[in-house]
Amino acid sequence: MAISARLELRQSQQLVMTPQLQQAIRLLQLSNLELNEFVDAELERNPLLEREVEEPLPTSGVDQLPSKDTGESAAERDGLSDLALGAPSNDASQALDTDFESAYPEEAPVDYAPSPSGDGLASGDSWASLRQRGNGPIDGDADLEAYVSEMPSLRDHLLAQLNLATAVPAERLIAQHIIDMVDEAGYVRGDLAALTERLGATDTMVESVLALLQTFEPTGVCARWLGECLALQLREANRYDPQIAGLLENLDMLAGHNLAGLRRKLDIDATELADMINEIKGLNPKPGLEFGTVAVQPVVPDVMVRAAEDGSWRVELNTETLPRVLVNRSYYTTVSKHTRSANDKEYLVDCLQTANWLTKSLDQRARTILRVAEEIVRQQDGFLTHGVQYLRPLNLKTVADAISMHESTVSRVTSNKYMATSRGIFELKYFFTSAIASAGDGEAHSSEAVRHRIRQLIDAEAPAAVLSDDKLVEKLKADGIDIARRTVAKYRESMRIPSSVQRRREKKMQAQVAASV
User: SS3 breakdown of the chain: % helix, strand, coil, rounded to 5?
Assistant: First the structure.
């Protein structure tokens, strides 16, 4: 077969990642605070951008988002374009080298260097600040001292331990709410009963999570009162006995210096009482103060979910987190008439293109967040209605297919975004749980729901009939949950539940203690 050279014409399609497309993708994963910082930087850099703060934005439902009005509005008479959530202007697509609809491609690479030609946002300092907030600094000149010199707060320290302590979604949700109730001294300040009712959890679940948090460092943290804090530290030092427990139950007498009454009540002599008092003096009544105190930054939800009158859920964007930006076209027209040099004209065109693209990027970002949030609410209706144990198995692909988006887009949308519900404020990623197959033809079960069922079975077991992992598998299969014994053991260990042998031994000891009393 002879080999010869020849020319062929082939037609193909490919996606070109321009700086504007990179910006639209990165805006998705920014939190509301980071987004406002970026918009503020753009307002300082771009003279054609202005912030509008007067008219409220309708945000209920995608179809209710504002659109371009055919009539002339007051803003248009002043030379201003639509709001950030309004329809895009007509001339922007002509000035850009790609269609706006392709701003969210199916496959989006993670890193792209800004264009050296100076197009769009690649020519300004704002691009560098955006990359630094997104995937890290461009030139590597990060201020390391800003991180090294920062003292971690008690909340950050507890959350770091929580990531290693449990992987159960329900326990993590409850634990995060309890951690938010911890004050600077390390005590839980708040009504746990109200938290239990709001989350739709059980008293046993909340008490179990609280007991887990009380094993964290510093010792004595997450106590509800002083006696409990001191008892946790004494147990850690293996110095907790009935005599000192009685002393902790009568701290009011110790505070009143009623030493004689304490000796009579505890049936001890003066030497023993002095030793116990000295031991208590060596404890830390405020363990949380070991960490630096920082200003608490409240979580501002991006999405609000409210119950509608017909029993459904109303999903709305939080207008307080949406930057509202206008393009001052009258100023552009006035300045362009008096511009003579080519560099000045190029600068004005670049500012106009950047401003137009920013307004459309903010518009598309808001619409995408709302669509994803609405689908999450639809999928997790059981959680909102009945509680945390009714979380359904959900993954990114399910949501992406339902709203005709790519998984990478849904992943970016759910990062650093929060939803305010009647059960509290949750990060969007918390609504995604793995699935356990059904033993029959029914629907799959959420892994968190399976863990909850395992805990229920163990809590209800009798002392004379402690359930082994094999017995748990049989009972779960009877409930329609097809699960392996190794998976049951893994879930049990993740919930810090001892084996059947250890539980049987503990129950026998408890029965003996109860009988002796």
Answer: 55, 10, 40
**Rounded CA gap, 70 and 307, in Å?**
34
H-only helix segments in 200-341 = 203-213, 226-236, 242-249, 251-255, 259-266, 270-281, 329-337
Alpha-carbon distance 52 to 327, whole Å?
A: 10
The answer to whether 457 and 173 are in contact (CB under 8 A) is: no
Question: Could you give the CA distance from residue 206 to residue 212 in angstroms, rounded to a whole number?
Answer: 10
39 near 23, Cβ under 8 Å?
no
Peptide bond preceding 109: is omega within 30 degrees of 0, i.e. cis? no
DSSP secondary structure, 40-80, as one string = HHHHHH-TTEEE--SSPPP-BSGGGS----SSPPHHHHTTB
pTM, whole model, 2 decimals? 0.54
CA distance 62 to 109: 28
427: phi then psi, degrees, rounded to nearest 5: -70, 145
pLDDT(141) > 60: no
- How is 183-213 classified by DSSP, letter by letter? -TTSBB-S-HHHHHHHHT--HHHHHHHHHHH
Residue 209: pLDDT band with limits 50, 70, 90: very high
> From CA 289, how far away is CA 153, in angstroms rounded?
10
- C-alpha distances (whole Å) from 121 to each of 105, 196, 225, 336, 350 are 19, 48, 55, 20, 8
Residue 481, amino acid: I
The HSE-up count of residue 9 (CA atoms within 13 Å, CB side) is 0
473-500: pLDDT as tens digits = 888 888 888 888 888 988 888 888 988 8
Pick the range with the lowest mean pLDDT from 147-151, 402-406, 460-464, 465-469.
147-151
Angle of helix 447-459 relative to helix 169-180, nearest 10 degrees, comes to 80
